[in-house]
Amino acid sequence: MSDVRVLVGTRKGAFVLTSDGARKDWKVSGPHFPGWEVWHMSGSPVEPNRLYASQVTEWFGQQIQRSDDGGETWEPVGKDFQFATEPGTHLWYDGTSKPWEFTRIWHLEPSLNEPDTVYAGAQDAALFRSDNGGESWQELAGLRTHESAPQWSPGAAGMGVHTIIQDSSKPGRMYVGISAAGVFRTDDAGESWQVKNKNLTSNFLPDPTAEIGHCIHKMAMHPDRPDTIFMQKHWDVMRTDDAGDSWHRVSGDLPTDFGMPIAVHPHEPDTVYVVPLKSDSEHFPLDGKLIVYRSKVGGNEWEPMTNGLPQQDCYVNILRDAMAVDSLDSAGIYFGTTGGQVYCSADSGDSWEPIVRDLPAVLSVEVQTLS
Amino acid sequence: MIRVKLPLHLQRLAGIDGGSGFVSVEVSGPVTQRSVIDALEEQFPTLLGAVRDRSSGRRRSLVRLYACGEDLSNEDPDTPLPEAVASGDEPYLIVGAIAGG
After folding, report:
1. CA angle A65-A67-A72, nearest 5°?
2. Nearest CA distance, A108 vs chain B (angstrom)
């Protein structure tokens, strides 16, 4: 039977949770990098024991850590994220132009094919690539220097690349999500990028259908259906079936379609998960009830998953990178909360149990299925 | 040798946690804040960017720099440090500011 390893980044360190495929008895390792924010951890699909972590504090800046033994030991690797060309400017909250400035790495996405290659999404929005296991980084500057970049602006959390999706069926094709600019696609491995925001609507913009400025919260793709991507936007759950050329709304009967994460079932490309929050002003579950909504038909028709989740007095947030799936036959769905819980469903969402209850606020959750 | 006291997080980054938190660095030439931090970063490359911003070279805003009971955080980094620091009698203190939760 396969094992699973859950990589949890929190506000005060990293944790590694492991179990056999039953997902009942968990071993908790950590905190690694205690006291530091760990924005994201991820493992190589090619070399699963190779893990990366983005470790950062306001005090001492950015560190990237790498493990080659599944998280038992770590070593700091390269952290020199230099823009490849002269930093331009983007819009600031007050409408003025502000020079690009590196702040932190939001998301690390290892290559699907090359164990030494990993992508890093940065705030301010930029994309970096390492081909030597994180020892050094080169910017894929075509994204930051896109002709629309002077019009990009930060969301409340900053202006960062939080989603990096590789299309395994088309070498060189990749998508990124930037809050608050939108979706961009490259077909030439990051040299050039196209805006993919058609039909996105954001009422906080002076022109709600503007080409640029949409606050994408998270996107997810099933590898067997790469032209279909699901998106949790600031408001709206969206879907594209033409590789981002156009989007349509699939919020359907959700009680609220504001939320942060979104995930796709590992074996059913039309089964999608979201965790609705009350509103963009109140980032907590509606009526104090923590509910995962599942659609088995690709959106519009959603069913509430409540079994094992708190149904009163629950006012946690679930952040954009804090939901993931394993690929066991009976699929596991996982999410972490700002209250420090990490929940697991070993039956595709039908029932839930907390793996841990009292971690620091969870920033990110990734899952590895280990054979 | 100049004695430098590191905060806990930087001790861990430097791989010296569990001890006193003091490291000794050697500076050739004038002993200034810049030359001491240069020597520290050369000896512990994992500290690059952790005390000073890597692009601008400026002190990170939540790092404070003290010696001999004085706050040197905003002093010219090329001003010579007190003789007591240069001689190793007094440490140069790198401090994480009290902030946040």
Report:
1. 115
2. 20
The model's confidence at residue B53, banded by pLDDT at 50, 70 and 90, is very high
Alpha-carbon span A78 to A74, nearest angstrom: 13
What is the dihedral sign for C-alpha B46, B75, B23, B63? Answer: negative
Amino acid at A174: M
Residue A196 C-alpha from the chain's centroid: 18
From the list A185, A259, A258, A181, the residue with the least C-alpha distance to A221 is: A185
B100 — pLDDT class (breaks 50, 70, 90): low
With bands split at pLDDT 50, 70 and 90, how would you rate the model's confidence at B99? confident
Nearest to B54 among A36, A59, A80 (CB): A80
pLDDT digits (tens, 9 = 90+) for A205-253: 999 999 999 999 999 999 999 999 999 999 999 999 999 999 999 999 9
State the CB neighbour count (10 A cutoff) for residue A284.
18
Contacts of A53 in chain B (CB under 8 A): none
**What pLDDT score was predicted for residue A183?**
98
Rounded-to-integer distance, Cα A302 and Cα B72, Å: 60
Query: Can you tell me the mean pLDDT for B20-36?
Result: 96
User: CA neighbours within 13 Å on the CB side: how many for A348?
Assistant: 16
Which residue's entry shows tokens 């020892």? A135
Q: Which CATH number fits domain B2-96: 3.10.20.30, 2.130.10.10, 2.60.40.3210, 3.50.50.60?
A: 3.10.20.30
pLDDT < 70 regions, chain A? 1
Q: Does A102 touch chain B (CB under 8 A)?
A: yes
Check: CB of residue A212 under 8 Å from CB of residue A181.
yes
User: What is the reported pLDDT for A371?
Assistant: 87
Secondary structure (3-state) at A142: helix
Put simply, the answer to whether A58 touches B53 (Cβ < 8 Å) is: no
Judge: B49–A80 Cβ closer than 8 Å, yes or no: yes
Half-sphere exposure of B18 (CA within 13 A, CB side): 2
A80 touches B at CB < 8 Å: yes
Residue of B97, B99, B94, B4 whose CA lies nearest to B51: B94
Instruction: Point out which residues pair with A259 in neighbouring strands.
Output: A276
Q: Measured between CA atoms, how close is B98 to chain A, in angstroms?
A: 10
Domain boundaries, chain B: 2-96
DSSP tally for chain B: helices H, then strands E: 3, 5
Interface predicted TM-score (ipTM) of this complex, two decimals: 0.92
